[in-house]
Design goal:
Blueprint lengths: L4 E2 L7 E2 L3 H6 L5 H13 L1 H12 L8 E6 L2 E6 L2 E2 L1 H5 L12 E6 L5 E5 H17 L7 E5 L4 H12 L3 E4 L6 H11 L3 E5 L2 E3 L2 E3 L1 H9 L7 E5 L14 E3 H6 L10 E2 L3 E7 L7 E6 L1 H14 L7 E4 L6 H13 L3 E5 L10 H9 L3 E4 L1 H10 L1 H5 L8 E5 L5 H11 L6 E4 L10 E2 L14 E2 L5 E4 L11 E6 L9 E2 L3 H9 L6 E9 L5 E6 L3 E4 L2 E4 H9 L4 E11 L3 E10 L7 H14 L8 E4 L13 H9 L14 H8 L1
Helix pairs in contact: 2-3, 5-6, 7-8, 10-11, 13-15
The structure holds adenosine-5'-monophosphate-propyl ester.
The site of adenosine-5'-monophosphate-propyl ester (PRX) has 22 residues, from α11, β22, β28 and β29.
Keywords: Acetylation, ATP-binding, Ligase, Magnesium, Metal-binding, Nucleotide-binding
Cofactor: Mg(2+)
Protein name: Acetyl-coenzyme A synthetase
Length: 648
């Protein structure tokens, strides 16, 4: 076994951290990891009790660590804290107060740094602004922003006053904003006059204006002047410029203490049926999960400059841009724009100039950099990097090795982190100073996490066999529900196996206990690390006047992981033209957002269905991928349909 382990450029199937890294790491050895892990699962309440005391600042201690009435968990019952105070105030008045909390770089190259002390001022002011607009505990506010300091300030200010934020990714369409704002009945929207993306303006305010025509609950819109867009239209009595309201706001704000189970945010994510679901996270448990994983998985030190490339519109941006990182008092870099603007070396230029030490990104980005060529990377001094991370989809060993050698210079451990919007925090990874990595495997469970691989009958499969990944113990940062839909919460996560969380992923565990994620096994696609429900794309397509029926499947894609392939039947008399193909792509973009735009639209006279009328998706997947058809077609209603579909 040891002869296959390596710490240098000749990469085998196991890659160990260097002895220098181990020496300074928070967890320094496999033995230490194993000991802590055993403690965490043998008496979870004792373990979490101790961690919560050590890592967070509480105003009132809790009476009970966990109250578990499956599938409903309450953590730190009776305890009170303020999430924002933990992320900001507790660093003020300490040696950290003058260190950079946020370093912002805009796509055009403009920069802004906020120290913890300055961040505190901004957050207090915006908390006062929110309160002056009538926002109070439990109210929902929507945040539709570019990646700027103000976006993070808005999240923290919302948390500070006990409001619930829902961040809507800036690439989503007006329709998506409308659905989300109406679902959670937001009273206030924070947006900007625009953002920069590949040199073009993303007109965020225009999308908000369109959306909230049909959002009766919205009373106030606060608009950050990001780009100086002169065409922005403001409605008197509803819309206010951020800089104007901030000017008049006091920088003094007393943070109240809230119950540990106070809702913190709702984040919409795609499922296998219907509209996106509002995943609800609460305060104490979520903050503990994100704080602890940030500390241990990213091995955060006061001297680090940490950069996660995710947008705050996704869970990674919530947990590992805002909450977990700031709670640890780290220096956090945020970048507004695209990785290839003005050039494909922009990321490496940023790493070099800001001396970034920890870099966390998605495999889809890594594969794009590989394709663009090493010479862009080689122009830059990346010697400041000491740890790399990957998230969002399985990383193929080839991309892992490239990341390790070309970006990490063969010296930086890679943490491949498996988790989900629903889990709130990282669940499976290798602690960087403790365990060797296996390129392509997410690794081992984090403390307190008990993953297993089940077959359809709910039995654990043998090591090496594939099955469904489940989490068998409640954990502090787990979702508390789907906003306003208890039934769907139970059905989605807790009905496949009674009393056990099923995550929707296929997986296998090898003889060393390492988990290998195969990917989604439900009708959710992972496109460039983002979740897209096939049902959502299908309903967007049928909302177009020309479409009679549609079925959407994924096809393996070299860069994006999965491509979106749509099979469409048209209404009587509609001609299948290339023009219509383009129109349907655009239509999906308008209904959902550019990330969901189909890669391919295939017209078909009919869709393959069983005699009971179910669309045969596996067969469509094979057709889309150009594979031989594996599925038994004897149940197919009309065999000619397959021949027509194969022709496209
Ligand atoms: O399929 C898994 C994949 O992303 C899904 C969760 O998506 P989302 O809630 O949008 O959160 C993404 C960021 C945490 C999972 O069900 N996934 C995420 N990380 C990994 C992964 N698949 C394999 N390896 C990972 N490291």
């Amino acid at each position: 076994m040891p002869n296959k382990t390596t710490s240098s450029a000749s990469l085998g199937e196991k890659v160990s951290p260097s002895s220098e890294f181990k020496k300074q790491a928070t967890v320094k050895s496999m033995a230490e990891y194993k000991r802590l892990y055993a403690e965490s699962v043998s008496d979870p309440e004792k373990f979490w009790n101790a961690q919560a005391k050590e890592l967070l600042f509480w105003r009132k201690p809790w009476k009970q660590t966990l109250e578990w009435k499956e599938p409903q968990a309450k953590w730190f019952v009776g305890g009170k804290l303020n999430v924002c105070e933990n992320c900001v105030d507790r660093h003020v008045g300490t040696p950290r107060e003058n260190k950079a909390a946020l370093i912002f770089e805009g796509e055009p190259g403009d920069q802004q740094t906020l120290t913890y002390k300055q961040l505190h001022v901004e957050v207090c002011k915006f908390a006062n602004v929110l309160e002056s607009r009538g926002i109070k505990k439990g109210d929902r506010i929507a945040i539709y922003m570019p990646m700027t300091c103000e976006a993070v300030v808005a999240m923290l200010a919302s948390a500070r006053i006990g409001a619930i934020h829902t961040v809507i990714f800036g690439g989503f369409s007006s329709e998506s904003i409308k659905d989300r704002v109406n679902d959670c009945q937001a009273k206030l929207v924070v947006t900007a006059d625009g953002g920069w993306r590949r040199g073009s303006v993303v007109d965020l305010k225009m999308h908000v204006n369109r959306a909230i025509q049909d959002c009766p609950t919205v009373e106030t819109v606060v608009v950050v002047k990001r780009i100086g867009n002169t065409r922005v239209s403001m409605k008197t009595g509803r819309d206010y410029w951020y800089h104007t309201v901030m000017e008049g706001a006091s920088h003094k704000h007393t943070a109240k203490a809230f119950d540990a189970e106070t809702p913190l945010f709702i984040l919409y994510t795609s499922g296998s049926t219907g509209k996106p679901k509002g995943v609800l996270h609460t305060s104490g448990g979520y903050l503990l999960g994100t704080t602890m994983t940030s500390k241990y998985v990213f091995d955060l030190k006061d001297s680090d400059t940490y950069w996660c490339t995710a947008d705050i519109g996704w869970i990674t941006g919530h947990s590992y841009v805002t909450y977990g990182i700031l709670s640890n008092g780290a220096t956090n870099l945020i970048y507004e724009g695209a990785p290839n603007y003005p050039d494909v070396n922009r990321f490496w230029d940023i790493v070099e100039r800001h001396r970034v030490t920890i870099f966390y990104t998605a495999p889809t980005a890594i594969r794009a950099f590989m394709k663009w060529g090493d010479h862009h990377v080689k122009k830059h001094d990346l010697s400041s990097l000491r740890l790399l991370g990957s998230v969002g989809e399985p990383i193929n060993p080839e991309a892992w090795k490239w990341y390790y050698k070309t970006i990490g210079g063969g010296r930086c451990p890679i943490v491949d982190t498996w988790w989900q919007t629903e889990t709130g925090a990282i669940m499976i990874t290798t602690l960087p100073g403790a365990a060797y990595s296996k390129p392509g495997s997410a690794g081992l469970p984090f403390f307190g996490v008990v993953p297993k691989v089940f077959n359809d009958a709910g039995e654990e499969v043998k090591k090496g066999e594939s099955g469904k990944l489940v989490l068998t113990q409640p954990w502090p940062s787990m979702l508390r529900g789907l906003y306003g839909d208890r039934k769907r919460y139970k059905e989605t996560y807790w009905s496949e196996y009674k009393g056990i969380y099923f995550c929707g992923d296929g997986c296998r565990q090898d003889k060393d206990g390492y988990f290998w994620i195969v990917g989604r096994i439900d009708d959710v696609l992972n496109v460039s690390g983002h979740r897209i429900g096939t049902a959502e794309v299908e309903s967007a397509l049928v909302s177009h006047g020309a479409v009679a029926e549609s079925a959407v499947v994924g096809r393996p894609h070299e860069l994006k992981g999965s491509a979106v392939v749509c099979f469409v039947t048209l209404k009587e008399g509609v001609e299948p033209t290339d023009e219509l193909r383009r129109e349907l792509r655009e239509h999906v973009g308008e209904e959902i957002g550019a990330i969901a735009k189909p890669d391919e639209v295939r017209f078909a006279p009919a869709l393959p269905k069983t005699r009971s009328g179910k669309i045969m998706r596996r067969l469509l997947k094979d057709i889309a991928a150009g594979r031989e058809i594996a599925q038994d077609t004897t149940t197919l209603e009309d065999l000619n349909v397959v021949k027509a579909l194969q022709k496209g």
